[in-house]
Amino acid sequence: VRRGPDYIYDSFTGDGSDTTFTLTHTSIPTNNAFVFYNGICLKPTDDYSISGQVLTTTFAPVNGSEIMVRYQV
């Protein structure tokens, strides 16, 4: 299956307590998304998972931190 050439970009800001973030699109497999925390690429299933439209991190991103998610639909 050929994918579109463009990536979808979602960004969030950590608040020190939330571990879930709602993505723009649904049904993104965990291993098909690139998740960055303050510019550092996270490891799928060890650092985060995606179910439906919800990204869940295994830690609470600190207040003011940047979470960026790139994926194709």
Describe this structure in words.
0% of the residues lie in helices and 41% in strands. With 73 residues, the chain is mainly β. The strands form 2 sheets. Strands 1-7-3-4 form a 4-stranded antiparallel β-sheet, with no helix packed on it. A 3-stranded antiparallel β-sheet has the order 2-6-5, with no helix packed on it. The radius of gyration is 12 Å and the shape is globular.
Low-confidence sequence ranges: none
Helix content: under 10%
Rough outline: globular
For the report, how would you describe the main beta sheet? Answer: 4 strands, antiparallel
Sequence of strands across the biggest β-sheet: 1-7-3-4
Distance between the termini: 11 Å
Q: Give a count of the beta strands, DSSP E runs of length 2 or more.
A: 7
Look at the structure and give the mean pLDDT: 93
Q: What letter string, H or E per element, gives the SSE order?
A: EEEEEEE
Supply the number of helical segments: 0
Radius of gyration: 12 Å
Could you say which structural class the secondary elements and strand pairing correspond to?
A: mainly beta
Roughly what fraction of the amino acids lie in strands?
Answer: 35-45%
Short description:
This protein is an all-beta fold. It has no helices and seven strands. The mean pLDDT is 93.
Topology:
Elements: E1 8-13, E2 20-22, E3 33-37, E4 40-41, E5 48-51, E6 54-57, E7 66-71
Antiparallel strand pairs: 1-7, 2-6, 3-4, 3-7, 5-6
What would the keywords be for this entry?
single chain; 41% strand; 73 residues; globular; three-stranded antiparallel sheet; mainly beta
